[in-house]
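S1.2 Input.
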Amino acid sequence: MRYLIFSAAFWLLSSFSPSGTSRPTVDRREAREAFALLNDIRQNPGAYQRKLHLSRGITVNHTPLKWNSTLAKVAEMRALDMAKRDYFDHTDPDGFGPNYHIDRAGYSLNASWLKRKNANSFESIGANHPSAVDGINAMIIGRNSPGYAHRKHLLGIGEWNASLQDIGIGYVRAASGSTYKSYLCVIIAKHDW
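S1.3 Output.
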């Protein structure tokens, strides 16, 4: 009995950090909702035209994206790493970019896409969004994205982005005291040409 009380007390105390900050948490439900929204936008861009500031001349790729568990794990890991190490960048503090992490996880990429260790051909990131859906909307509106790069990536605009079919999304709520409240990582990729 004494062991049970000690174990319960230890578990309770160890679940709180001494500084009062919480730990980052992965929210897979949010990631799946963002995936469903993104495919709906791709299938019905006219329904989102006003909300997402899509011009009539925009050519959205209507091919549905396919959920890929390896890319989802990489996206989660990337978002969680940003939350834990309190940074926001496509290149991690060790100098490695998304292409490196994707290939290392077992989603093999063309060797030419791995020549630079900080290469990013497949990732869009967002931070401080109350939900993953809000993050997708913000990235598509793209006011803070140079040349609307996230919009092009997420909606499959242009030859390169239209060729990407596999997707994984990670959404992480950060610990209190972090620079951002949340991190969103969307990876849309392909193995080769």
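S1.4 Remarks. Confidence is low (pLDDT under 50) at residues 1-20.
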